[in-house]
Structure prediction request, 226 residues.
Amino acid sequence: MSDQSCCAWLGRVVAGLVLATFGASLWAQGAAGPIPQIYICTDAGGRKLTSDRPIVACNDREQTILNPSGTVKARIGPVLTPFEQSQSEARIRAEQKERAKKEEEKRMDRALLIRYPNPAAHQKDRAEALAQVVLVKQLANARMTELLAERSQLNDEMAFYAKDPSKAPARLQRQVASVTQSLAEQARFLAEKDKEIQRINANFDDEQERLEPQWQANSTPAGPAR
Prediction:
């Protein structure tokens, strides 16, 4: 056999041995299978159950997964029914909504503190808001006084027709009706302004209640430096 033929033959032999060794390794890994793990739980009857797979009898409760060494690998929760799943999702949505609400309240409180860093600034804004409504009320009251005087004058004219008001001139009757309607409108307008004053005070009272703890925290002197 020539040297060239001998080298080729040895190469084929070595390659065959390598492939055989690699195949044997793959077969051994497949035969060994995945690393075993143990499922443990206590069923509804108080029995402690153990298995190498999820335990059906404990689908309604938590199961513990152990490593072969006995250490805890993981825990799996109960398998929920569709109704329980929907309830769980609804509870999660409600919790998320509540958290978002609290975060929004904190954001609003921070913005409110920036706007009103102290009680004086808050009281100043309250006084200005109330002053605007009070001014409008003063104008409305002045108009109410004018209308009352006008109605008094019309009543004097209507006194001539006290026995039969239908005989009063049409012009006079229209004036009486117009003044009466205007007085009613002014009364409703003034009542709305009173309600607006109540709303303004209630809003500022609510803001003050939320701001006072922050004002106190900001006004508390810092402790002595060490």
Summary: Strands lie at 38-42, 48-51, 63-66, 72-76. The radius of gyration is 45 Å. Residues 13-31 have pLDDT under 50 and may be disordered. Residues 32-79 form one domain.
